[in-house]
Each structure stands twice: as C-alpha cells, then as structure tokens.
Amino acid sequence: MDRLTLQRVEGVAVVTLNRPDKMNAVDFAMIDEMIALAGQLAAEPGLRAVVLRGEGRAFCAGLDVANFSALALGDPEALIAPRSHGDANRFQQFSLCWRALPVPVIAALHGVVFGAGLQLAAGADIRIAAPGTRLAVMEMKWGLIPDMGGMVTLPELLRADVLRRMTYTAEEVPGEEALRLGLVTELAEDPLMRALDLARAIAGRSPSAIRAAKRLVTAAYAAPAAEVLQLESREQIALIGKPDQMAVIAANMAGRAPKFG
Fold it and tell me: Considering the domain 4-202 in this protein, what is its CATH number?
C-alpha cells in the first residue's frame, strides 16, 4: 500500500492515512486502497477493533484537488453513477466500508477533518478529537455536494438544520463545538492514545457479543422497530450459553480477565 499503513496489536488494527505531505488528502489510489484494506480486515476472524488515524499534521484535508480536473474533464456519469458495492459506488464505499466492518471502528482526529475526511470519520463508530481539531463539510467550497456516504452517516450524528448549515456554508466547526453538536464523541488531548485505549477495552470483551452489538446498533438506526425487536431476540439467542459468554461468566466468577478461543 502506498497511501495507507497497517499495524496490528493484540487484535486491534491501526489503519493510518499516510500522505502527510498532502495532509492525507484523498486521491483515487487511496480510495481503492481503503476499500481493499477494509475488505481484507473484514475477513479476519481474530480482528477485535480498528483505529483510523492520519499521519502528520491532519487526519484528512479532504479530496486531493488534483483529482478535481479528472472529475471535471472526464465523464462524471461513468465515474459516479455505477453501483460497484451494493447500493454504493466506489467513492461512497470509501467511508461506508468501515460502517460495514463487523467490528467497532474508532477514528482518532486531529488537525483538519474536511470534506472526504469528515465523511470517512463519520463512517466510524466512535470519533475522538483533539480540542483544536477543525471539521467541515467542505464540498460547497468547490461547488459540489458531499457524495462519499456522508448523507447516510451524518444524519445519525447531526440535527437536520445543523447538517444543512454545514453543507450550505462549508464553514468550519472547532472540536469543542463539534462535541456539543454530536459530530464527535469526545475530546482528548491525545486522541490516538484514547482511541487505542478504547480499542483495547473493546478487544477484551466477548468478540461474538461485540459483533452482535454492532449489527444491532446499526439496524436500530435504519430498520423499523419490529425488525429491530426481532433482531434483539435473534442476536441474544445466538449468544446465550455459547463459548464466548461462558468464558465471560467463568472470568467474572474468578475475578480475572476472560480468555476467548
């Protein structure tokens, strides 16, 4: 991989956007690497959690402006219209691949989180931001609209009027306001360290229960109530008395950390 790096620590995968000289701006190569890497990780049974981070001064400054000419001078219909990943196209899958990952994904944010970077972060389950982080739905600055999955994920985080304001104006939101609005989960002086601590805590929980919980919470925001209630029951039935739950019970009774197969 040229645009990303991957490290694994005790079931936690740390995925780093690695174009620090470009403030991790997203180009077509990064999009393809991101989708491929998410697919690779999704197939790993030992994976417990993922941390997304950016190398250098920023998490991600948005779409690489060098790609604008390829979009403007090419055939937008041919690039954007095809559904290459279920309901999503290649650009939307860049962020939605993390929503589809079976384990929790935590984004560690710092510097700027603009445009495509914000949509990538919104695809994570949890967002930890440094206090000075600046976030923006930046596409309107370039005469465009957000089209990388953000209109699926951002409405779960923001009130409609706030999302409209951010989309129409492209104005930046500081980390402290982003916390108040619900755009980030919490602030931390060292967001990467906090993200790793959370990932390790998740990795110590029942892996089957964590995966079931992600499926259930995802459905809770999208499916009718009757389907969610049925899913609650099905997921719980699949957990009760199974090896992971029995390992948790035994560990709790013995006052030690659980050991999973």
Answer: 3.90.226.10
26: Cβ–Cβ under 8 A, 6 or more apart, which residues? 60, 62, 63, 64, 67, 94, 116, 117, 120
Cβ distance 258 to 248 under 8 Å?
Answer: yes
User: Does an H or E element contain 160, and which?
Assistant: helix 160-169
Residue span(s) of the chain under CATH 1.10.12 come to 206-254
C-alpha span between 192 and 59 (Å, rounded): 11
| Neighbouring-strand partners of residue 49 | 12
Looking at the chain, the domain(s) classified CATH 3.90.226.10 span 4-202
In tens, the pLDDT along 100-128 reads 999 999 999 999 999 999 999 999 999 99
pLDDT in tens, 6-18: 999 989 999 999 9
For residue 49, the SS3 value is strand
Closest to 132 (Cα-Cα) out of 186, 189, 195: 189
Instruction: For residue 13, list its beta bridge partners.
Output: 8, 50
DSSP string covering 191-241, please? HHHHHHHHHHHHHTS-HHHHHHHHHHHHHHTTS-HHHHHHHHHHHHHHHTT
Bridge partners, residue 249, by sequence:
none
178 exposed, middle or buried (CB, 10 Å; 0-12, 13-18, 19+)?
buried
Please state which CATH class domain 206-254 belongs to: mainly alpha
User: pTM of this prediction?
Assistant: 0.96
